[in-house]
Structures are given as structure tokens and as C-alpha cells.
Design a protein that fits this description.
Rossmann fold, Dihydrodipicolinate Reductase, domain 2, 2 domains, six-stranded parallel sheet, 25% strand, binds NADPH dihydro-nicotinamide-adenine-dinucleotide phosphate, binds the ligand O=C(O)C1=N[C@H](C(=O)O)C[C@H](O)C1, 4-hydroxy-tetrahydrodipicolinate reductase, NAD(P)-bd_dom_sf, NAD, diaminopimelate biosynthesis, DHDPR_bac
Length: 238
Amino acid sequence: MKIALIGYGKMGQAIEEIAVAQGHEIVLKIGIENLGDFTVEAVAKADVAIEFTSPHSAVANIKKCFDAGVAVVCGSTGWLEQWDEVIAYCQEKQGAFLYASNFSIGVNLFFELNNYLAKIMAPHNDYDVSMEEIHHTQKKDAPSGTAITLAERVLEHIGRKKQWVNHISDNPAELEIISERIDPAPGTHKIKYHSEIDDIEIIHTAHNRKGFASGAVMAANFLNGKKGIYNMKQVLGL
Ligand SMILES: NC(=O)C1=CN([C@@H]2O[C@H](COP(=O)(O)OP(=O)(O)OC[C@H]3O[C@@H](n4cnc5c(N)ncnc54)[C@H](OP(=O)(O)O)[C@@H]3O)[C@@H](O)[C@H]2O)C=CC1
Ligand SMILES: O=C(O)C1=N[C@H](C(=O)O)C[C@H](O)C1
């Protein structure tokens, strides 16, 4: 598979290592220092573009890849208020798109565990639920995209919580997500159900970025040759 790497920071470099080891070819690498090389013609040489940049650049980058007729795997977080616009553009261009707030197999299993736990905790009103995420200090967005995915599933099941907030809260209708920035944390997510009697807590801790990178390459393999909008549940058959 021919891959264009849009974003060549921590994730772009981790993805390159895994993709090359699996025999894929990197036909384009775009970082902030060679943005001028990011043309529709250059991206069109790839089968799939893998986009890991920043909340502010992701949408324009994704659209340029659709203009080139190239499938896009996107891991950038913090841009989801423009989700509808991206999906409409993908459909207009008859493109292929796969976004995941977290590509690691472990976190995608953890998403399933979170759903199940929220479902069985729903009738137990004595338990309050709160969340915590810990990442490195270079992270630009808060809460993390993964925390937002987890929180949305909790809100679907726990009717006593109406919205998530990214600060300490004593309002029982708010699902508190506390964000901590501590180096070199690659990504830790906790969901805690707390009562006067006991606590139930689930935690996922990434030890490095290999899981995110190999999941992104897996997603690119899945998307190659397809049209439409997909997600990691479909990639992993969950
Ligand atoms: N979905 C998932 O599984 C994961 C998602 N992420 C997300 O991926 C994104 C990138 O993370 P990470 O690699 O750690 O971040 P880095 O800051 O290490 O890398 C991002 C790179 O993109 C560059 N960049 C910024 N703007 C543009 C642009 N317009 N075009 C091309 N390149 C650009 C940055 O350059 P410069 O530094 O000079 O600004 C930087 O080199 C973040 O949004 C993060 O939240 C991260 C890990 C896993
Ligand atoms: O910025 C990061 O590093 C990470 N971002 C993703 C997120 O926002 O959830 C995934 C992972 O936690 C690492």
C-alpha cells in the first residue's frame, strides 16, 4: 500500500516505522517545514493518507486528500465540531474516511468495557461517575478525544448525567472529566463509579505509541479500495 503521512510528529514517525516494517511504501511525508509539498497532485500518488496533525489543521488536510480522491485515516483529535462538514464533503467527493479518537486495540476493547459497565451501573443511583485523563504536556486539546468518546457512551447510559464538563464539578448532572498533563504520559484514561460504600474503577494505560500507530496502519489497510465512512469497530469486528 502507498501511504501519504500528513503530519510527521510523534505519531507520523511511529506510523512510518510500523508501516515500513510491514512492507508499505511512504510516498509523501508532510510536516510543518514542507507544507508547500502538500499538493493534490502529490497526495494523489498514495492509496491512503494517514492524517495526524493538530485540531486546527486536520479539517483542511482531510478535505485536500478528498480533493485528490485519496482515502483518509484521521487520528487528529479536537476538531469534531466540524464532523458534519467533513462527512458531507467526503460524500460529495465520493471519498473514503475513517476517524478514531484512539486507534489502539486495547482502547477499543476498553470502549466496549466502558459501555458494558455504564449499562449495568445505570440503575444504581447511589454511584456517582467521574473521569480522568492523563497525557504529555505537548498535547494541544483537552479533554482528550478518547475521553470524549468514553464520556459520550457514559452519558448514553447514565440518565442522571446530562453533559460532560472539563473541570471539577459538584453538580450531580455533570460528568466531570479531569485532564492532567504530565510528561511523558502517552495516554491514560480512568472511569470511576463512586459510592459511600465502595468504588469501581476501570483504567487503560498506554505504555507507548505503538498501539495507536499499528491500529492506524490496520485501519489504512481496511480502508484501502473502499468508499464511505467507517470506524474502528468495523476494522476490529467488535
Ligand atoms: N487517534 C489516536 O489514536 C491518536 C491521536 N493523536 C492525535 O494526533 C494528533 C497528532 O499527535 P502527535 O503526533 O502526538 O502530535 P505532534 O505535535 O508530535 O505532531 C503533529 C505534527 O503535525 C505537524 N503539523 C501541524 N500543522 C500541520 C499541518 N497543517 N500540516 C502538516 N503537519 C502539521 C506539527 O508540526 P509542529 O510541531 O511544527 O506544529 C507536528 O510535527 C493530535 O491531535 C493527537 O491528539 C495522538 C495519538 C493517538
Ligand atoms: O495527543 C495524544 O497523545 C493522544 N491523543 C488521543 C486523544 O486525544 O485521545 C489518543 C491518545 O490518548 C493519545
